[in-house]
Description:
Layout: E1 2-6, H1 13-24, E2 28-30, H2 31-41, H3 44-53, H4 61-72, E3 81-84, H5 90-103, E4 109-114, H6 117-125, E5 127-130, E6 136-138, E7 157-158, H7 165-178, H8 181-188, E8 192-196, H9 201-224
Parallel strand pairs: 1-3, 1-4, 2-3, 4-8
Antiparallel strand pairs: 5-6, 5-7
Helix pairs in contact: 1-9, 2-3, 2-4, 3-4, 4-5, 6-7
Amino acid sequence: MRVILLGPPGAGKGTQAKMIIERYGVPQISTGDILRAAVAAGTPLGREAKTYMGRGALVPDEVVIGIVRDRLTEPDCHGGYLLDGFPRTVAQAEALTRMLRELGTPLPTVVSLDVAEGELIRRLSGRRTCQTCDAVFHVEFHPPRAMGICDKCSGRLIQREDDQEETIRRRLQVYREQTEPLIGYYQTQGLLKRVNGLGETGGIFARISSILERRDGQGAASQSH
C-alpha cells in the first residue's frame, strides 16, 4: 500500500491521510519530519541539509531524495507508506520514480482529490479560530453555539489571515503553478487516480479505499506470477 495524496488546500488531504494510515497501518512519511530527524541524528545527508536550513535556503532536491530514500528503506516501510508533502514538483516526482525503480519497489498509487475552487474557498474562508485555545470552528459546517464565541473556553473567534479569501486565492494560484503539473506527470505514467472530494469524509474515504485495494491486489497478483 504505497500512496501519494494530491489535492489543493482545503481538499481534505489531512483528514483522508489520517484515515488511510489508521486503516492500513502504514507510516505517514512527511518530508519535514524526516529532514528534521536526519539533522537531529547527524547523518551525512542530515548534516548537508542543515547547512541549507541554517541559512533559510531550500534543501536541494538531490539531498531531499537521498533522505527520502533512507527513510523508505527502513523496516516499517516494507509494507507500504503514505508520502506527505512530497513530491511537490515534476522534477522531484521524476527523481522519486528513478529512485523507486533503482530500489526495485512498486511505484505508488497517486490519488488526486478533486474539488472545485469555489468549494475550496467556501471551506477555507468559513473557518474561525479561537484566539485563546486555537479551537477551530466553521460558520457552516461546525458553527459555535454563540456567534463569535468559542464553545470550549469562551474566547473570541477570529478569521485568520490564511483563511481570508484573498490569501486563499493566492495559495490556490501557487498550487496550480507548482503542484498541479504533477497531475499531468502521473497521468502520463498511468499512476493517477482521480477522486471526487465532495461529500461526507467517510464516502470519500470509501472511494479512495476502493482504488487502493484494487491496485494493491493487482500488484500482489502480478508479483505472485
